[in-house]
What we know:
Blueprint: H1 8-26, H2 31-38, H3 42-50, H4 57-66, H5 71-77
Helix pairs in contact: 2-3
Amino acid sequence: MPKLKETESQQKDRLTRAYIAKNMELYGLSDEQVAIKLRCTKRTFQNKKKRPETFTLGELRKLCAAIKLSGEEKGLII
């Protein structure tokens, strides 16, 4: 079967995962450190990181501050 084209939602989720991974690596942040800043468990953060559509708007705002996303990156994921 031919591979289906990604939906816009899937593309945004992939982009969000990439920005999270890039900035966490850039600033040397662990899953546990980010989870503490988001006030959730490490496992919850890991699950949300895999499925970014499950983040609430408030969690996304805290995440953007915690991993120091640029203004452009914030606009693309929110």
